[in-house]
Amino acid sequence: MAGKILIVDDVATTRIVLKSRLARASYTVLLARCGVEALRLIRDEQPDLVLLAAQLLDCDGFDMCRRLRALPGFADLPIIMTSAQADLALVRDALQAGADDLIPHPCDETDLLARVRTLMRTRDAGRDLLVEEDFGLAEAGAAFAHPGRIGIVTADRETALSWKVTLGRHLPGDTLLALAPEEALAAASAANCPEAFLIAADLRHRNEGLRLMSDLRARTGARHAAICIALPSERPSRVSAAFDLGADDLLVGPVHRPLMAEQAALRLRRLIAKKRSSDRRRENLRTGLRLAVTDPLTGLHNRRYAMPQLLRMADRARRLGQTFAVMVLDLDRFKAINDTWGHLAGDTVLVEVGQRLCRSLGPGDLLARIGGEEFLIAMPDTTLAAASRIADQICETIRARPVVLGGGNGVIPVTASIGLAIGGDSADTSIEELIDRADHALLDSKADGRNQVTVFRRTAA
């Protein structure tokens, strides 16, 4: 199903017409005749978008919009207000109340569905980034609203400068850049790419602004930038095309008019706020994924990361006919370190050993902490002789220098035992079996006196 839309209107014929249009596009439609009923349905049914009449029998639609925005969990709920009149002042009031747009009713069906698709697509993209609960990374409150960077692209520099001056009266703290199309593309590749672009639909040629928008979307720096397309007039076919080609919002009419300039500023501010929210969520996602595969104490990768990486290493070795090495390293008598020096000292030892292991391995090698004092090392395209030599060096690196505790609290001698196994020489050996072989060799190292490397032999018990 395409999504769930709530229509809030006290006129039955309006509800029926809108429901028919949306149902034909496979949306599930909910109906409410008043504000009270709408609030109940929003809490119970959690629609994906709301079509809200500007005037209702029991409340003012603009006040209703503000109430919806204040509801916990519904701050980003797409809201399109509808009105028999949609003059510039009403559109401004709707945007100030928190609506995403205000459209006239009756309106063109193509126009309506294009706006709905865009808002639903943006909403779905935001939901894909909602990882706060999964990773315990609840989004912080609104950060300091630093000035925005907005690129203005028109057919000629004179017009761009005129728009810049007009918009600057409503965006006094923001940086407005008058850009030619070529300069916009260059800015999209720069480190300080504009957060939002206001682009005239027609530049040197008709619809050239839409083509520029597509080019900007292909640039890494501008991929997530907010883009508002300025149309000279509201023709449904052009509205639909602009939205479906990737516009986040539209501005219809001459920007130099005071109410239109104010509307443009409101739309750009809202787009930048949404972009920043998505950016924070995107960063939370990256952080969450990084935390999911990282050992919090040592900063090394954990088992969750190591196992699929080891599987890829094994697959590559089979394809290329190479061997690779797997080591399991365990610190000797680590429990005694914790018992004697305390767990904080034990943590210091683990961190220091992790750092020494990092310095001992190459950029293509795999290192992970897979247990309390146990580490996994894997080296691609490595022979037994080379792996044995590196394993001996690792043992010596750990043994040669005691771990110094902070605050002059002493030094702790540390040694490690290593079990080594070679993979890639048998197609029927799984990575689990390979790790198990290294584990068996590790036990032999422990049994033979610790602080040494033992290579797994097929004849070993």
Automatic annotation (TrEMBL):
GO terms for molecular function: diguanylate cyclase activity. Its EC number is 2.7.7.65. GO terms for biological process: cell adhesion involved in single-species biofilm formation; negative regulation of bacterial-type flagellum-dependent cell motility; phosphorelay signal transduction system. It catalyses: 2 GTP = 3',3'-c-di-GMP + 2 diphosphate. The lineage of its organism: Bacteria, Pseudomonadati, Pseudomonadota, Alphaproteobacteria, Rhodobacterales. This is diguanylate cyclase. InterPro entries: CheY-like_superfamily, Diguanylate_Cyclase, GGDEF_dom, Nucleotide_cyclase, Rev_trsase/Diguanyl_cyclase, Sig_transdc_resp-reg_receiver. Residues 4-120 form the Response regulatory domain.
